[in-house]
Structure formats: structure tokens, C-alpha cells
User: What shape does this take?
Amino acid sequence: MLLLLLASAASAQTRHNLHACVVNAKSWVVGAKLASSGLIRFDQSQSFEQLGFVHPMILAADYDRRDPSVLYLAAGNGLIRATDGGRKWRITTGWEVTELRDVTVDPNTPGTVYFSHTEGIRKTTDGGNTWQPADTGIREKYCETLQTDRTRAGRVIAGCVNGVFLTEDGGASWRRTGAEGIQVRRVVQSPHQPEQWLAGTQVAGLLRSTDGGRTWEAAGDVAVERTLYDIAYDPTQPGRIALGGWSTGVMVSEDNGKTWERRSQGLPRWDIWSLAFDPGRSGRLYANVHEEALFVSEDAGRSWRKVGLDGAFIYRLHFFPEAAQ
Assistant: This one.
């Protein structure tokens, strides 16, 4: 517990920048130049920089805990290792691996990275030089989301087309621990209580685990019959959680999910793709409204203003340490 508190304090003192996995094709026609798309970094002044190539399909990213200037990108054409803060790219997978959905770095094991795609899960233990299948036990292979457990090496939770799955041996074997028959869109570990996980689903609402993903239960009736695309914990404020999804608007809880309030005043639509709290400023929350823009709230969603990226939809919003520039 002391180590977790120290790590949390160190994280709070580290400057972070927002990274957005962007597709901006609202008015695109064949043959035209694609607008700013791919991986885009916002600095502390909220001005943005296109990192690497303009890319039509970057869905998620994570960073190397040994060297945060190294990023791993889940892309439509493979797993990209991006150095120099994301500016120099190299595809690390072969032609047979496409349509990646998510990527996660194991913070406890240097060089170990997992990604999910439409054909399952793969793993590297050497920073992306070689990859191996790592989805034994997952029968229906499509996995939308996965995240490593920061408290234990080799422990990963995945949200798939038919439930939530858990591995405790680095992907050598998996077992379903909940949500059978339900498509899971997002899994997230609490930064305050590592045994607590949340899963956003398609039509079944929000699921909660309080035992590290071993069992799951419905977390009330929030967003039932809707699709939840993203979940964000506020790392600066225990108990504060935000949800976003299709026709849900932004929902915020201040009591660890016991009650929820819709905080969408000032947003043009209730169709939310992605959310992220700023770890350096309590209550600052970013949200992407589908094909509208990126918006920011300074008061945990009670009011909003537009930041930019008009017409874009953003698969994921990530805060990475400033060393990742």
C-alpha cells in the first residue's frame, strides 16, 4: 500500500500531456488530403502537434515505463512502435496482423506489451521485436479492449465480444470471469483502489468488480440499453468517475459509482466517444463528441468549452508523462 501511495504522489508531481487517437474524415472524399488524424499531442497550453504520419486509424496508445519517449500504437495496419515521443514510427507486426483495437504495456515487466485485434490477443516480451499469440482460452477471438493490472506482472483483463476475460500467467491461459453473452467495450482499473475495475458494455450498462476482475456485477442501472464507449477515473479525486457513450452524454459520479449525474450542458450532442481526466489539474475533464470536436471542462463536466479538432472523432484520450514528447 505504501508503494502505491508513493507512486500516486510521484504521478501527481509529473507533468503530463494529452494524446488523442484521432480520425478526422467527416467531410473527406476519395482523393482528398486527410485532415489531422492519427496521434495528436496537446501541450499544457492546449495547442496541438501532429505526431508521426497522418494516419486514418490509430485506435489506442500506451507508453514504455522505462522510457516514456517510446509509445506503442494500436493501428489499423499493425502495432507501431513510436520513438522520439511518438514522432518516429516503425511497424513491428507482419502483413497478417491488422485491425488492432487496443494496446497495453505491463508496467511490472520491462518490454512486455499486449495488443488485442479482431483475431485475438498477441504479446511481446522484447519491446515489439517478436510477437506471439496469447489468447488460449478465449474461444471467440474478437477483443475490443484490454488492460494490464498495475499491481502484478502477467495479470491482464480483456473485454471481448463474449464477456470479460482474465489471465494471471501473461496470456498463457484465460478464463471468462463475467458478462457471458455481452460485448464489452472498455475495461479500466481504479487508480485509487487497484482491486476495483469497471467495464463498459454494449446494452448491458456498467459492470463492476471489487476483487481484481475475478467476479463482476451490474453497477446499478446506469446507461442500460446504451453503448458505453469510455470510462475515466479522476486520479486527483477518489470517488470521481466519468462515463461516456452513445446517447448517454457525459455521466459523472462523485461517490465511486453509487449515484450518477448527467453533465452535458454545453455539449452539442450526447454521443461521446472518449473521456480523460487531467492528472495534473483536479476536475479538468476532456470529452470528444462524435464528429463535432474535442471539449474540455474545468469543473468535472458542469460546464464545457470547445478546444479544437472540429469534425473529428477520437477513439481514445491518453495522458502520458511529459518525457514522452
In short: The chain has a mean pLDDT of 92. The longest helix spans residues 2-13. The domain at 28-219 is CATH 2.130.10.10 (Methylamine Dehydrogenase; Chain H). Helices lie at 2-13.
